[in-house]
Design a protein that fits this description.
The chain contains 14 helices and ten strands. With 352 residues, the protein is α/β, with parallel strands linked by helices. It has two domains: 182 residues, D-Maltodextrin-Binding Protein, domain 2 (3-Layer(aba) Sandwich), CATH 3.40.190.10; 158 residues, Periplasmic binding protein-like II (D-Maltodextrin-Binding Protein, domain 2). Strands 1, 2, 3, 4, 5, 6, 7, 8, 9 and 10 form a ten-stranded mixed sheet that branches. Helix 1 crosses helix 3, helix 6 crosses helix 7 and helix 7 runs parallel beside helix 14. The radius of gyration is 20 Å and the shape is globular. The N terminus is likely disordered.
């Protein structure tokens, strides 16, 4: 469930070191076996034993997986080495970064087998990247934590400003956390720039109501959220968090729920890196990532939802997931053009 985004200023040095190492990998890749392809992923990528081996059994193509850090660091590596690509396929560039990848001409167009089973809302123009999974970032609540305070479940973003919820809510820093950035963008969609009451006014009021800011999802969820023993019964997390609580807690009822208003939909893509010497085989792997074999494996490993509508959700997801009716899906170019400004302005508010 954890999706952590880097602060570019903090990670620049790490990226330079990582790229220096990965360039040597790229040189090796150029001489690689034509029946072997390199898959570059973020560090939250997880798949059941035997799934990639099944791909090899079906195709004769061996997949070498390499991890490029979190999603932002991974993408920066791909951009900085695009003239000598470090992999054949990249997985895990999400919709907050996909425009940057496309603008840097990273991808070869590929229309994946099964793409007709993917919602148009998830697609990018020109088949330059293929949607593989998605997740909704939403406010989660701890039922017992609210009940113990005799506080009702909040229904929407406006409710979080009510003094009833003073000092009860924890969010993640959007400069260092992917769900934190997603929630910030959900508030920007609800209270847009230029409105009489814009997102900056909203956050000023939210801070006045005692919202706490954690550096990442793990700190927010496992330290401050009351379900994990903290003192705040409201947290920014995922719509898939309640089924995860049931699964790992071996429970019959979810102890947490999801506020379905004010959610942001994160979409993760895979693409063929331009310059790959194994473009045809890379396309075969993209097709596999969208196939039922891989798609059915996604929920219980990465706690996001498969992009292919024909995939089968595990029963725990079917029973305990509540899907928001209208999650925010922001145009990627809008995100790319404004992301750094939004984060800087939010940071100024947080420090004031």
């Amino acid at each position: 469930m954890k999706r952590t985004a880097p602060n570019p200023k903090r990670t620049a040095g790490l990226i330079i070191v990582a790229v220096a190492v990965m360039v040597s990998v790229a040189a090796c890749s150029s001489d690689s076996n034509p029946d072997e392809i390199v898959l570059l992923t973020h560090d939250s990528f997880a798949v059941s034993d035997g799934v990639l081996e099944e791909f090899t059994a079906q195709t004769g193509i061996t997949v070498v997986q390499r991890t490029g850090g979190d999603a932002g660091t991974m993408l920066n590596q791909a951009v900085l080495t695009k003239d000598n690509p470090i992999a054949d396929v990249i997985y895990g560039v999400d919709n907050t970064f996909i425009s940057r990848a496309i603008d840097n001409d990273l991808f070869v167009s590929h229309r994946a087998s099964g793409i007709e089973n993917v919602s148009e809302l998830l697609l990018v123009d020109g088949d330059l990247a293929t949607p593989i999974d998605y997740g909704d970032v939403c406010v989660n609540y701890h039922m017992e934590g609210l009940e113990n305070r005799d506080v009702p479940i909040p229904a929407n973003l406006d409710d979080l400003l009510d003094p009833t919820y003073r000092d009860l809510f924890v969010v993640e820093d959007p400069a260092t956390s992917s769900p934190g950035l997603a929630f910030l963008m959900a508030t920007i969609a609800a209270y847009p720039d230029g409105a009489d009451y814009d997102w900056k006014a909203y956050w000023t009021d939210l801070f006045a109501n005692g919202v706490s800011v954690a550096s990442d999802w793990s700190e927010a969820y496992y330290t401050q959220f009351s379900q994990a023993g903290g003192d705040r019964p409201l947290v920014v997390s995922y719509a898939s968090s309640p089924p995860a609580e049931v699964l790992f807690g071996e429970l019959t009822e979810a102890p947490t729920g999801v506020m379905t208003e004010g959610c942001f939909r994160q979409i993760e893509y895979a693409g063929i890196l331009k310059g790959s010497e194994h473009e045809a085989n890379a396309g075969v792997l993209i097709d596999f990532l969208l196939s039922p074999t891989f798609q059915n494996d996604i929920p219980l490993n990465m706690f996001v939802y498969p992009a292919n509508s024909q995939a089968t959700l595990p029963q725990v997801f079917a029973d305990y997931t509540v899907f928001p009716d209208a999650p925010v899906v922001m145009e990627p170019h809008t995100i790319d053009e404004n992301r750094e400004r939004w984060i800087e302005e939010w940071t100024q508010i947080a420090r004031s």
